[in-house]
Amino acid sequence: IPNPDRPEEQIDLILHPLNSNKYHVDIVNGFPYISFSEKFIGRIYSMQSNSNYLDSDKLQTISEVASKYLQNIVKDYLYKTSLEFESDINEFGKYSLSNFLTIKEFEDYDWQNNYKNSAFNISIDVEIQSGFLITEA
Length: 137
Description:
The protein has 4 helices and 4 strands.
């Protein structure tokens, strides 16, 4: 991710999903509205010298930057699958089934054709716990 203090530099992170991902699909005015959320914990893997990554405020800032960074990447990816590829390669259609009373209603809706009209609400929460440091650099 970009370093919040020095945007020209990068901070490498190791993230682990907490397997808390949640998907929800609504049909709003005839269009798919797909919500996705995920939580990650992580550690700083590499950093620049003279950086103080042991401060809890600094770790909070890095967590917020990482959350926003990942949200943007995932959102860009999902809009690419819907608008450019016009393909539900993530199989969100199976989460939309509860919006239809019968299989025929779902088939008549033509999910594969309507996926390109999807809107996405992405929520990603990253908690950076620390770096792989024993002492401050």
